[in-house]
Amino acid sequence: MKKTIAILGILILTSTFFGCRQHIDINDYIDQKLPLELKIGNQLERPDTIKVNSDKYRKLVDWGKANKDDWESTSVSYIAGIYIGQGNFRLLYLPGKDGVVIGFTDKNGNPKQYAKKIKKGELNFLND
């Protein structure tokens, strides 16, 4: 009986842990016909633009395609060294760290925010 309860407990924890992770394609929230706003560090008042079809734009789109899994919902506020935005979409990243945060308004008009662990430095190309 104890063994059955232990196995059941593990199954519940496992399903809860994996049930919290979401499959999200950031490209569903970016209009690839429009440029992206880029703010780095202290330049938050003077944003730059990532032009459509630029190398940086293509790398971000490709990164989004390769990173659809393991997003976890979060309501925490984050500080970012790099901000990418367009309309209701934003991506927050701190260079050299192993995490990224996205926020957007879903198709039902509800604000969402998700975080994901990534390889350290994986998005450093945004700072180039």
Instruction: Report the β-strand fraction as a percent range.
Output: 25-35%
Find the structural class using helix and strand composition.
Answer: alpha+beta
Number of helices in the DSSP assignment: 2
What would the principal axes of the Cα set say about the shape? globular
Radius of gyration: 17 Å
Give the low-confidence spans.
1-19
Topology order in helix (H) and strand (E) letters? HEEEHEEEEE
Q: Give the overall pLDDT as a whole number.
A: 83
How many DSSP-defined strands?
8
Q: In order across it, which strands form the biggest sheet? A: 1-4-8-7-6-5-2-3
**Helical amount among residues, as a percent range?**
10-25%
Amino- and carboxy-terminal Cα gap? 59 Å
Q: Largest sheet, described in full?
A: 8 strands, antiparallel
Describe this structure in words.
The chain has an eight-stranded antiparallel sheet. The chain has 128 residues and is an alpha+beta fold. The protein is built from two helices and eight strands; from the N terminus they run αβββαβββββ.
Q: Outline of this structure?
A:
The chain is an alpha+beta fold. The protein is built from two helices and eight strands, in the order αβββαβββββ. It has helices at residues 2-19, 55-66, and strands spanning 21-22, 36-40, 48-50, 71-73, 82-86, 89-93, 99-105, 111-117.
Q: What descriptors fit this protein?
A:
2 helices, 23% helix, 29% strand, 128 residues, disordered N terminus, eight-stranded antiparallel sheet, alpha+beta
How does the SSE layout of this entry go?
Elements: H1 2-19, E1 21-22, E2 36-40, E3 48-50, H2 55-66, E4 71-73, E5 82-86, E6 89-93, E7 99-105, E8 111-117
